[in-house]
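Title: Comparing notes on inverse folding

I've been comparing how different people in this forum approach sequence design from structure. To keep things fair, I'm posting one structure and asking everyone to reply with a full sequence. Here's the target:
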């Protein structure tokens, strides 16, 4: 068996092999993780040197020159021998930096590199997701504006209700996504650095290194935090940063998953009605057995993966709950899975939804037919008011309409026929005084209330301002390979 087939002999996460973007897959990769560890060791050495510890320029330069050339095979061998991933990489780094070996990881605990790297990955993960969410919002905003005035049946309980417009319905989706945008931005901005805190968070090792100088320990923490690109570090930690940070990160992604599940379920329902369809490739096959089918596979993929994303939130909740005292290690294996998978899954469903919203197809004639089928029932109140204005009695008219409506409903439900209420109204001499008004009374645009005006105001006040910071990143299109 050749080496190229080895990868097919073991499980590969479909989140990476099948779906995720290269940038998000890289964000949680070993390459990103371990090069970040080395950067953190360099930051620590630079700050310790600046604050007076006996570290030389040559040692720092040696570390910097080997920041990216990681011998992963050696690291794996060291970890097998030492049973400790951080020390394995300390030894591997020290092997190519012999002059700097004595000062690599000086005063630090494993969580100095582990936790700080996780926080960098969480922050960078949000930075990948936010422009993608902005693009989805932008595409849906364009869709809402285009169809702001197109009447469509509204549904409550998935039963025909008062009319709305296609654009107004999309604003319901947009409102959820703008809330997600604020949630993701807040979660991203709330992330602080663990900083330089020592084994149980007391900074005792660093206080010893600086011979009891508290100010230098504080300066060390601040300097490394700034080098890593953070404005603040947590003032108190145990051995780890509080696992509530993981909850705050994953819960906003799970909440976004719920929004996207709802949107894509709506699209699937509308696809069944043939009112709206997701984009469909020229040679795409909907069903192996039924050539006519055009399945909403992208929306289904979003729903499928969104369920996984929503389920993942229980992991950080439970991990946070069982962190005894200053920490336990039962968080580690869980977080290796739950944190990357949350961001990878969120990344996939955003990319897929962007692809959907860039090519949504609307069928106005089908929408109009469905309106025509239901509107006579909805127009009965308008007909009654017109008869009253023409001098008729409301109660008499109500009874006439009630009887005719039930007859028409029987034709629809029991005989499978079309709604013939209007024909019955026209045939009844009682309604002769208002026959000339019927077309106006049944104009769908008179049943949509302020939907178009709501779309205009909502886009102007809620949507466009939230997109302003991402204007330069709007041009990216999404082409799905699968």
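Reply #1:
Here's my take.
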């Amino acid at each position: 068996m050749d080496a190229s087939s080895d990868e097919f002999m073991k499980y590969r996460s479909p989140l990476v092999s099948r779906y995720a973007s290269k940038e998000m897959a890289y964000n949680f990769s070993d390459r990103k993780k371990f090069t970040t560890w080395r950067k953190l060791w360099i930051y620590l050495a630079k700050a310790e040197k600046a604050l007076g510890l006996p570290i030389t320029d040559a040692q720092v330069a040696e570390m910097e020159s080997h920041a990216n050339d990681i011998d992963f095979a050696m690291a794996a061998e060291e970890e097998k021998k030492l049973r400790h991933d951080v020390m394995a990489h300390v030894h591997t780094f020290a092997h190519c930096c012999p002059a700097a070996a004595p000062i690599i990881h000086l005063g630090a605990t494993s969580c100095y590199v582990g936790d700080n790297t996780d926080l960098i990955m969480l922050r960078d993960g949000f930075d990948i997701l936010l422009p993608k969410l902005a693009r989805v919002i932008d595409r849906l905003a364009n869709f809402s504006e285009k169809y702001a005035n197109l009447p469509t049946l509204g549904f409550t309980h998935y039963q025909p209700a008062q009319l709305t417009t296609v654009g107004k319905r999309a604003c319901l989706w947009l409102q959820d996504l703008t809330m997600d945008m604020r949630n993701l931005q807040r979660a991203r901005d709330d992330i602080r650095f663990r900083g330089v805190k020592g084994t149980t968070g007391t900074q005792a090792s660093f206080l010893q290194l600086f011979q009891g100088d508290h100010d230098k320990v504080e300066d060390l923490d601040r300097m490394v935090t700034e080098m890593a690109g953070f404005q603040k570090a947590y003032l108190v930690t145990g051995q780890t940063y509080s696992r509530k940070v993981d909850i705050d990160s994953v819960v906003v992604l799970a909440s976004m998953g719920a929004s996207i599940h709802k949107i894509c379920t709506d699209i699937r329902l509308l696809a069944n009605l043939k009112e709206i369809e997701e984009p469909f490739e020229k040679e795409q096959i909907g069903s192996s057995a039924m050539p006519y089918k055009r399945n909403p596979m992208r929306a289904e993929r979003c729903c499928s993966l969104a369920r996984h994303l929503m389920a993942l939130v229980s992991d950080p909740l439970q991990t946070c709950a069982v962190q005894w005292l200053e920490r336990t290690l039962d968080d580690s294996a869980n977080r290796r899975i739950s944190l990357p998978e949350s961001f990878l899954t969120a990344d996939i469903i955003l990319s897929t939804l962007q692809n959907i919203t860039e090519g949504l197809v609307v069928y106005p004639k089908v929408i109009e037919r469905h309106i025509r089928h239901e509107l006579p029932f909805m127009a009965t109140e308008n007909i009654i008011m017109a008869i009253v204005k023409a001098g008729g009695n409301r109660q008499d008219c109500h009874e006439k309409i009630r009887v005719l409506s039930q007859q028409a409903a029987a034709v629809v439900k029991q005989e499978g026929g079309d709604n013939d209420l209007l024909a019955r109204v026209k045939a009844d001499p009682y309604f002769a005084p208002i026959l000339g008004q019927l077309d106006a009374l049944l104009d769908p645009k008179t049943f949509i209330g302020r939907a178009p005006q709501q779309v205009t105001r909502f886009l102007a006040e809620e949507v466009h301002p939230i997109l302003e910071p991402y204007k330069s990143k709007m041009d990216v299109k999404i082409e799905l390979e699968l």
